[in-house]
Amino acid sequence: MATQKKCPECNEWTSWNHQLTDTCEHCGQLLDKRTINDLEYFEKQQKLNDENSFSAPKPGDNFLMLAVRRTVWIANVIYMATVSFFLWLFTTLAG
Ligand SMILES: [Zn+2]
Q1: Over its length of 95 residues, how does the chain's per-residue pLDDT go in tens digits?
Q2: 40: part of which helix (H) or strand (E)?
Q3: How far does CA 15 lie from the centroid of its chain?
Q4: Cα distances (angstroms) measured from residue 45 to each of 32, 38, 74, 75, 82
Q5: Which of 45, 52, 72, 90 maximizes the CB count within 10 A of its CB?
Protein backbone atom coordinates (compact mmCIF):
# COMPACT_ATOMS: atom_id res chain seq x y z
CA MET A 1 0.00 0.00 0.00
CA ALA A 2 1.88 3.05 -1.24
CA THR A 3 1.10 6.36 0.40
CA GLN A 4 2.71 9.78 0.39
CA LYS A 5 5.17 10.97 3.00
CA LYS A 6 6.90 14.29 3.43
CA CYS A 7 10.67 13.85 3.20
CA PRO A 8 12.42 14.99 6.41
CA GLU A 9 15.46 16.15 4.39
CA CYS A 10 14.04 18.16 1.47
CA ASN A 11 10.38 18.60 2.55
CA GLU A 12 9.07 17.22 -0.76
CA TRP A 13 6.18 14.74 -0.87
CA THR A 14 7.28 11.32 -2.06
CA SER A 15 5.67 7.88 -2.34
CA TRP A 16 6.14 5.68 0.72
CA ASN A 17 5.55 1.92 1.04
CA HIS A 18 5.77 1.93 4.86
CA GLN A 19 9.19 0.27 4.65
CA LEU A 20 12.11 1.37 6.82
CA THR A 21 14.34 1.24 3.74
CA ASP A 22 12.19 3.52 1.54
CA THR A 23 14.09 6.50 0.21
CA CYS A 24 13.02 9.94 -1.04
CA GLU A 25 12.42 10.23 -4.82
CA HIS A 26 13.93 13.72 -4.79
CA CYS A 27 17.05 13.54 -2.60
CA GLY A 28 17.52 9.79 -2.01
CA GLN A 29 17.52 10.08 1.80
CA LEU A 30 15.83 7.49 4.00
CA LEU A 31 12.30 8.55 4.86
CA ASP A 32 12.16 6.89 8.26
CA LYS A 33 15.63 7.43 9.68
CA ARG A 34 14.38 7.94 13.24
CA THR A 35 12.63 4.57 13.26
CA ILE A 36 15.73 2.78 11.91
CA ASN A 37 17.84 4.41 14.65
CA ASP A 38 15.30 3.39 17.29
CA LEU A 39 15.31 -0.15 15.97
CA GLU A 40 19.13 -0.35 15.95
CA TYR A 41 19.22 1.02 19.50
CA PHE A 42 16.57 -1.47 20.60
CA GLU A 43 18.44 -4.40 19.03
CA LYS A 44 21.75 -3.27 20.57
CA GLN A 45 20.16 -3.04 24.01
CA GLN A 46 18.55 -6.42 23.56
CA LYS A 47 21.92 -7.96 22.60
CA LEU A 48 23.57 -6.37 25.65
CA ASN A 49 20.79 -7.66 27.88
CA ASP A 50 21.16 -11.14 26.42
CA GLU A 51 24.87 -11.21 27.22
CA ASN A 52 24.58 -10.28 30.93
CA SER A 53 21.17 -11.82 31.27
CA PHE A 54 20.00 -13.57 34.39
CA SER A 55 18.37 -16.17 32.12
CA ALA A 56 21.66 -17.24 30.49
CA PRO A 57 22.79 -20.54 32.06
CA LYS A 58 25.93 -20.20 34.20
CA PRO A 59 28.41 -22.92 35.16
CA GLY A 60 27.49 -24.57 38.45
CA ASP A 61 23.72 -24.16 38.09
CA ASN A 62 21.63 -26.94 39.57
CA PHE A 63 18.36 -28.18 38.06
CA LEU A 64 16.20 -25.75 40.06
CA MET A 65 18.32 -22.76 39.02
CA LEU A 66 18.14 -23.83 35.36
CA ALA A 67 14.33 -24.12 35.64
CA VAL A 68 14.12 -20.61 37.18
CA ARG A 69 16.34 -19.19 34.43
CA ARG A 70 14.19 -20.90 31.80
CA THR A 71 11.01 -19.39 33.27
CA VAL A 72 12.58 -15.92 33.36
CA TRP A 73 13.68 -16.39 29.74
CA ILE A 74 10.14 -17.34 28.63
CA ALA A 75 8.67 -14.34 30.49
CA ASN A 76 11.30 -12.16 28.82
CA VAL A 77 10.43 -13.50 25.36
CA ILE A 78 6.73 -12.77 25.95
CA TYR A 79 7.63 -9.26 27.15
CA MET A 80 9.85 -8.63 24.10
CA ALA A 81 7.14 -9.91 21.75
CA THR A 82 4.64 -7.50 23.35
CA VAL A 83 7.07 -4.57 23.07
CA SER A 84 7.83 -5.47 19.44
CA PHE A 85 4.12 -5.66 18.68
CA PHE A 86 3.47 -2.21 20.13
CA LEU A 87 6.49 -0.76 18.29
CA TRP A 88 5.07 -2.18 15.08
CA LEU A 89 1.57 -0.96 15.93
CA PHE A 90 2.73 2.61 16.67
CA THR A 91 4.95 2.87 13.59
CA THR A 92 2.09 1.56 11.44
CA LEU A 93 -0.50 3.89 13.00
CA ALA A 94 1.87 6.87 12.87
CA GLY A 95 2.05 6.56 9.07
ZN1 LIG B 1 13.96 14.25 -0.01
Answers
A1: 578 999 989 999 999 888 888 899 999 998 888 877 888 888 888 888 777 767 777 778 888 888 998 998 999 999 999 999 999 999 998 87
A2: helix 33-51
A3: 23
A4: 20, 10, 18, 17, 16
A5: 72
Q: How far is the centre of ligand 1, averaged over its atoms, from the C-alpha of 93 (Å)?
A: 22
Q: How far is the centre of ligand 1, averaged over its atoms, from the C-alpha of 15 (Å)?
A: 11
Q: Distance (Å, rounded) from C-alpha 55 to C-alpha 61?
A: 11
Task: Evaluate whether 26 touches 8 at the Cβ level (below 8 Å).
Answer: no
